[in-house]
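Hi,

Apologies if this is the wrong queue. I'm a grad student, and the batch job for Haloacid dehalogenase from Streptomyces dioscori produced an output file that my downstream script rejects. I'm not sure whether the problem is my script or the file. Here is the sequence I used:
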Amino acid sequence: MTDRTGLVLDFGGVLTTPLLPAVLAFEKREGLAEGALITALYLDEDAIRHTQELERGEITQREWNDRASRSLGLAPNNLMGRIFSDLRPQTALITAAAAARRAGIRVGILSNSVGLEPWNLYEGYDLETLYDAVVISEEHRMRKPEPEIFQLMLGRLGLAAEQCVFVDDTEQYLPPAAALGFATVHAVEPSRTVTELETLLGVRLAGAV
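Support response: The file is valid. Your script probably expects a header line. Output copied below for reference.
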C-alpha cells in the first residue's frame, strides 16, 4: 500500500479511445489530406487561441465550429461531433477507475472542455454517478494546465496533491501537475497506464471485478 488515496483522470484520450485516430478517420471521410486538420487547428496560433477560449467557456462550440469550418473549407454543422465521432469508451481505464474507487481511492475527472452543445463529449459516461468529483473546464472559466483548476479538483476531492496521481494523454499538462505535488502518468497505452497506476496506488486494478 501507498499513502496515495486520490486519482485524477483526464477524459478524452484517457477514458476514451485516442484522439488522433479519430481525427485521421475524420480527415479521410471529409476528403482532407492527412494532417490537414491538425495543421489548420492545432498548429495555427489563432486556431489554438480559439480552442483555448472554447475550453474556458469564452466562446461556444457552435462559434468554434463556425471558425474552424472556415479554416478547413467544410460545413460547420456539428463539426466538433463529426471530428470525434469515432471515439469510444476506453474500457481498461474505466474498469481501473471503478476498481480504484472500490479500494477506497477517491477518483476525479479533470477535463478541458470542447463545449457541450450541440455535441456533448461526456454523454453516456455517467460521470456524476461513477466518480467522486468532476471538473469540466468551461464551467469554471479556467483550463489545464493552470494551477487553479488542479487546486479546484483537489478541493473537491478533499485531498492534497501529494496524495494524488494525475493521468493525462497530453504530456505538456503533466509538469505543472507535478510541480504542485501530484505523481503523474502519461497515458499512451492503456495496459501500461493501468500497470503504472497499480504501482503508484498500491492496489490491483487490471481485470478487477
